[in-house]
Each structure stands twice: as structure tokens, then as C-alpha cells.
């Protein structure tokens, strides 16, 4: 029996290693759900399981950070409805463009409030635990808390660095990286992120 459990554990690790393969990490922008199916078999899927609420979210990496060559950011459908009252209120509260808030949400999580990255960032605006705690967030997956805190953090970066590109670089790669390189860090992921958020921001400005 002990051997059987070890085999199941090894199988689970093998499947997880496949989920976290290089190609998956570079191309995937999906939530990966870990659960046991109706037969009790350990399963992994990019779709939320319908037959059970007992599942674990393994990863959701920044939607706009991956290469995603199939996505045209100039035409990808916008989301102008979900969480709209929250983003409107947050924009007024912290004095920041709502179009930027929604562009960051779109880029970070594609408006999925249960998004969880492999680095531990959570929620709509993908807040790290330490950042969330510094902003008084108790539940990072709560849409209101997440958006208000994420907007406040973004506003802080705008005020500190003085322009949107550097603020987005700080939001994605961290303020210390921007200071170290005295500009946008030479990270392909960060460069893609900034470009795509700015495209989305311009489109949301016209759509809202």
C-alpha cells in the first residue's frame, strides 16, 4: 500500500513537471486546476472542474507577459463590464485613469479574480503577498480589495517614477529593478508587458 501511494505521488509530480515545462511556462496563460475526478484519479486541466468544488489552482501567469504569438493585442476583445463599478471608484479614489487600471487587470489576469501565478501573485491585479499586506489587503482574491490596492500601488509607481512606462515596469519587475537599470529593465517579459498594457490602455480609453 505504501508503494502504491509513492507511485501515485511520483505520477503527480510527473504530470506537474509537464504542466511546468518550458513551453508551457513561455506560452501558457491558463489557470491549471488540480483535482480528483469522479473515479478518484488525480487530474489536471485548464478548465474549472464542474463535478467538484474540491480543487487546487496551480498557476496562472501574467496574461500579457508571455509571447502569445497568436494574440493580436490591437484586436483582442476588451472587457468593459466586469468589475466596472469598482474600477470607476478606484480611479476616482486614487486619481488614476480607469483605462490604465482596466488595461493592467486585462494584462495581469484577463479579469479572472481567482488567478494565481507560479510566483504567488494573486487576484485581478496579481498582488504579491508582501505588497498586499503593506496595502492592508486581507483577501487578495476579493475583487474590491485587490483592485483598490493594485490601483493604489500603481499610482505610487506613477508618482515615484514620473511616467507610465516606468510605472508599468516597476509594477511588473519591481521598483528595485527599475532603479538598478535606471529605466525599463532589459527583460523580454517586462518589455512585452509594457507594450501590451499601453495598447490596451489606448483601446480602453476609447471604449469606456
What is shown here, in short?
This protein has helices at residues 2-19, 22-27, 84-94, 98-109, 129-134, 143-161, 164-173, 175-181, 188-207, and strands spanning 32-36, 42-45, 55-59. With 208 residues, the protein is mainly alpha-helical. It is globular, with a radius of gyration of 18 Å.
Protein described:
There is one protein chain. This protein is mostly helical and 208 residues long. It has 2 domains: 2-59, no CATH class; 84-207, Lysozyme. The protein is built from 9 helices and 3 strands, in the order ααβββααααααα. The protein has helices at 2-19, 22-27, 84-94, 98-109, 129-134, 143-161, 164-173, 175-181, 188-207, and strands spanning 32-36, 42-45, 55-59. The protein has a 3-stranded antiparallel beta sheet with strand order 2-1-3, covered by helices on one side. The longest helix has 20 residues, at 188-207. The radius of gyration is 18 Å and the shape is globular. The model is unreliable at 1-30 (pLDDT under 50).
Q: Which tags fit this structure?
A:
mainly alpha; 2 domains; Lysozyme; single chain; globular; three-stranded antiparallel sheet; 3 strands; disordered N terminus; 208 residues
Secondary structure blueprint with pairings:
Elements lengths: L1 H18 L2 H6 L4 E5 L5 E4 L9 E5 L24 H11 L3 H12 L19 H6 L8 H19 L2 H10 L1 H7 L6 H20 L1
Antiparallel strand pairs: 1-2, 1-3
Helix pairs in contact: 3-6, 4-9, 6-7, 7-8, 7-9
Amino acid at each position: 500500500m505504501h508503494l502504491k501511494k509513492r507511485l501515485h505521488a511520483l505520477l503527480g509530480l510527473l504530470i506537474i513537471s509537464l504542466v511546468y515545462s518550458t513551453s508551457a511556462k513561455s506560452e501558457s496563460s491558463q489557470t491549471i486546476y488540480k483535482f480528483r475526478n469522479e473515479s478518484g484519479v488525480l487530474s489536471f486541466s485548464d478548465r474549472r472542474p464542474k463535478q467538484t468544488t474540491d480543487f487546487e489552482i496551480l498557476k496562472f501567469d501574467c496574461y500579457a507577459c508571455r509571447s502569445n504569438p497568436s494574440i493580436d493585442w490591437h484586436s483582442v476583445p476588451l472587457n468593459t463590464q466586469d468589475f466596472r463599478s469598482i474600477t470607476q471608484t478606484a480611479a476616482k479614489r486614487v486619481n488614476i485613469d480607469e483605462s490604465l487600471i482596466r488595461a493592467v487587470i486585462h494584462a495581469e489576469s484577463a479579469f479572472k479574480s481567482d488567478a494565481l501565478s507560479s510566483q504567488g501573485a494573486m487576484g485581478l491585479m496579481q498582488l504579491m503577498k508582501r505588497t498586499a499586506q503593506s496595502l492592508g489587503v486581507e483577501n487578495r482574491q476579493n475583487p474590491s480589495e485587490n483592485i483598490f490596492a493594485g490601483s493604489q500601488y500603481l499610482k505610487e509607481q506613477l508618482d515615484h517614477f514620473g511616467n507610465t512606462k516606468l510605472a508599468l515596469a516597476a509594477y511588473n519587475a519591481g521598483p528595485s529593478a527599475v532603479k538598478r537599470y535606471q529605466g525599463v529593465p532589459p527583460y523580454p517579459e517586462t518589455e512585452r508587458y509594457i507594450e501590451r498594457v499601453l495598447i490596451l490602455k489606448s483601446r480602453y480609453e476609447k471604449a469606456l
